């Protein structure tokens, strides 16, 4: 009987119903998250491990890379890679892969769900009905705002940003975007200034990458430029928005609404956001559909299998 290839798994894939069992059947897994002393576990089991699997939640630090002298491939579940030390990996010639494309549509769909929920007060209305307030002395919920025909600004016109923009055309919206550089061959107007995009937009969707380069990109100035009738939607990474500035803008009335799937200190969410009826809050579920989580799992495993068979991953991270 052929021995199973030995790999390191940094954390449990609780968000994927079958990934843990699938990996355990095919590989000899060193389950790092189960060891109380990670450093000792790596010293004992790290030698000879050529590949590890992880996710943006668990990451892969330079310290972890240094503890695995034979590591050649890092296969991550998910599209984000800001918690993976790409520079340290590439310095050692280690390949890094993620799972792009397969979650694009579901994340874009959720951005639209958040946009509609924020504009039309869907979550507020749901709570209102459940509390038996409809038709009572409490009156009605505040009026919402129309989405169709409005101005949609997108921060980051990558795969997901472009999918969101495409949906905007179906709502007869005027769509503009801001990115590090202008894209060729897209039908949307480029706005070099993020503040000017926010001033123009009715809805501003954050779809950029995370990491140091975009930390607090959406700051007080941007939020106040979006204004008291504007809505900010974030399906990217929590730290892209200055959360303290966001809370202040909502409470002061300088920003109209916020609809968020991600937060700066997940899973911690500021009490001020929880208490604010102008905020729609979701627990980072952009990719949380049966179809997408299975596709993410499949692509992660395909990257791992490809590396072990050919020495090359399928979807390398080049950054």
Helix content: 25-40%
What overall form do the CA principal axes indicate?
A: elongated
Radius of gyration: 22 Å
Measured between the Cα atoms of the first and last residue, the distance is 40 Å
Quick one: how many beta strands? 12
Strand content: 15-25%
Mean pLDDT across every amino acid position: 96
Largest sheet: 7 strands, parallel
Number of helices: 12
- Low-confidence stretches are none
| Class derived from helix and strand content | alpha/beta
Concise account of the structure shown:
The protein is α/β, with parallel strands linked by helices. The protein has helices at 19-26, 38-45, 62-66, 86-91, 104-120, 122-130, 159-170, 194-200, 220-226, 243-252, 271-274, 290-310; strands at residues 6-9, 28-31, 51-55, 73-77, 95-97, 151-155, 174-178, 189-190, 203-206, 231-234, 257-260, 279-281.
Account of the 3D structure:
By secondary structure, this protein is α/β, with parallel strands linked by helices. The chain contains 12 helices and 12 strands. It has helices at 19-26, 38-45, 62-66, 86-91, 104-120, 122-130, 159-170, 194-200, 220-226, 243-252, 271-274, 290-310, and strands at residues 6-9, 28-31, 51-55, 73-77, 95-97, 151-155, 174-178, 189-190, 203-206, 231-234, 257-260, 279-281. It has a 7-stranded parallel β-sheet with strand order 8-7-6-9-10-11-12, with helices on both faces. Helix 7 (159-170) links the parallel strand 6 (151-155) and strand 7 (174-178). Helix 8 runs parallel beside helix 9 (220-226). The model has no long low-confidence stretch (mean pLDDT 96).
């Amino acid at each position: 009987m052929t021995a199973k290839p030995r790999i390191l798994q940094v954390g449990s894939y609780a968000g994927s119903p079958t990934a843990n069992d699938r990996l355990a059947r095919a590989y000899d897994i060193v389950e790092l998250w189960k060891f109380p002393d990670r450093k000792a576990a790596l010293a004992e089991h790290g030698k000879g491990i050529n590949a590890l699997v992880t996710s943006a939640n668990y990451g892969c630090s330079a310290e972890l890379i240094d503890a695995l002298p034979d590591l050649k491939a890092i296969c991550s579940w998910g599209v984000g890679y800001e918690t993976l030390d790409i520079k340290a990996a590439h310095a050692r010639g280690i390949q890094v892969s993620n799972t792009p494309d397969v979650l694009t549509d579901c994340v874009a769909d959720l951005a639209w769900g958040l946009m509609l929920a924020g504009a039309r007060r869907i979550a507020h209305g749901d709570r209102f009905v459940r509390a038996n307030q409809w038709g009572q002395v409490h009156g009605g919920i505040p009026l919402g705002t129309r989405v169709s025909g409005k101005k949609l600004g997108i921060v980051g016109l990558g795969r997901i940003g472009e999918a969101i923009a495409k949906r905007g055309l179906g709502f007869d919206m005027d769509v503009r975007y801001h990115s590090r550089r202008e894209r060729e061959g897209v039908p949307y107007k480029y706005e070099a200034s993020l503040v000017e995009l926010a001033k123009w937009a009715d809805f501003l969707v954050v779809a950029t990458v995370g990491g140091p380069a975009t930390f607090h990109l959406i700051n007080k100035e941007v939020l106040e430029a979006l204004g008291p009738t504007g809505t900010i939607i974030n399906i990217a990474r929590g730290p892209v928005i200055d959360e303290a500035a966001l809370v202040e803008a909502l409470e002061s009335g300088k920003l109209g609404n916020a609809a968020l799937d991600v937060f700066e200190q997940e899973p911690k969410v500021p009490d001020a956001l929880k208490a604010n009826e102008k905020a729609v809050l979701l627990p980072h579920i952009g990719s949380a559909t049966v179809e997408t989580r299975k596709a993410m799992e499949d692509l992660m495993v395909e990257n791992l299998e490809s590396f072990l068979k050919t020495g090359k991953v399928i979807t390398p991270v080049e950054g």
